[in-house]
Amino acid sequence: MSMLSAAVAIGTVTSAQAEDVEVLHWWTSGGEAAALNVLKDDLASQGIGWQDMPVAGGGGGNAMTVLRARVTSGNPPTAVQMLGFDIQDWAAEDVVANLNSVADAEGWNTVVPNALQNFAKYDGKWVSAPVNVHSTNWIWANKKLLDEVGAKQPTNWDELIETLDKLKAAGYIPLAHGGQDWQDATIFDGVVLTTGGIDFYRKAMVDLDPEALGSDTMVKVFDRMSQLRGYVDKNFPGRDWNLASAMVIEDKAGMQIMGDWAKGEFLKAGKKPNEDFLCFRMPGTQGMVTFNSDQFVMFDVGDSDAQKAMAKAIMSPEFQSAFNVVKGSVPARTDVPNDAFDACGKKGMADLAEANKSNTLVGSMAHGHAAPAAVKNAVYDVVTNHFNGGMDSKQATKALVAAVQDAQ
User: Of 12, 44, 67, 162, which is most buried, counting CB atoms within 10 Å of its CB?
Assistant: First the structure.
């Protein structure tokens, strides 16, 4: 039986009990599972059971396939982990719950950043509870290896390349990477931001301006992607992101360009920020933040007290702190103290506040917060084709313009 049919069969036979919540998610790595346990334990303390429905696959593509089958069969889960425009697409199908009663009672409108509310609300009603704010323009580096090769934390592109060269010369894998389209696109986000700056990123990735997409700046972005491709080991195709993180953790690779969920893997391995590993923005993007936000969309399962309790628990300041300390992300509400967070967490919270204030907080294309899914997937195809040598930078730039235009 396939993963999809098995999931549908399980869901059809065992519908959630009234006092339970059935949760569909893709948090299956060690750090992610540890973070999710914070929520499970919170609900258990309220007498609410948890029916776990994990579907592996970073980015949630597999989970959305399973969800489609469940909703089509008239048996949706209680809550589903979801990102960005996917939330709006499902809300438009009129199959989600209305959380306004909980949101109003808990004051969500005043503590959740507008950038998140744009996704969490549909047609004036709250349909999801944001769990966190992740940012994607991070680099995670092995401090011991950088010290060994005499490299400092790079602050611009040239210094980044110099550091990668030193790691390569010393016999280490310079850049740990998993060859999956969303991982390629995560790097692409950061390269667009550092190469063109915040205004260019907005024009190209959010406004989808054909002139920006087809510009000489975009050719340079693809040239830089080709540069980075030269620092990846030959076994990268198909590798999961957390296995790439493990390469840095285990002193096999120097750096990983990945969202801040990677920090959960380092922490779970007993590593300490600024001692064992470094966390810093993609060189040239300090002060800018590309974000995505994991949210639990509540589906229409009738008037469920357990569902409301789950939404309330997710948004409580205590949970937001406890969960995000473990997950590597920062809270989805602005009034949570940073006392419990480590050095990387405090930096993440400060960076988010700075970007929010200076209007340099932008949605991540790679993670569904800059453009709708059809456009995102079109960008994935071009970026991954180019990264794997299928076309040169000028061809990729031309293909990007056409792909984005066709997807709209």
Answer: 67
